[in-house]
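Hey, can you fold this one?
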Amino acid sequence: MNCLSKILNYSIIGLEDYLISFENYCSPCDIQKFCKYGKAEPFTITINCGDLNRAKEKIKFDQLQKLQKKEDVSVTYEELIKKVKINVQNIFSQIWKEKVKAHKEEIRCLDSRKVDSMLVAQQGQDWWQNFNSTMKEINRECEKII
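Sure. Predicted structure:
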């Protein structure tokens, strides 16, 4: 019974910073009553547009270096750039791992050591899908800024 929106609550908190709130997940239930976070103090993370942009630039740089080694020296920079593919899903996944999954001690419903692993897997998948949708939206907003 997941009545949560596909996009988590987020707001701009600085020139290039967004705050994502998981407050819709903080309703009392058998699992979440043991969580560190609740309605009064929801779990939040900050996303910085500069960090997103740097991650994309690093991927672009790494791919360009590989392409330059493979391609003929006559291939122009512009032609190489067209071949670069940036997968933002990998960036979102890394942010998820560092900023959400790393807090599984505080977020009981994402800790399979304390809650049934099937429930954790379902909860994690729901959270990830909503987080991913929210990150796509924030990424679009960041692209307007930078």
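Residues 34 and 66 are 48 Å apart (CA to CA). Let me know if you want another pass with a different chain boundary.
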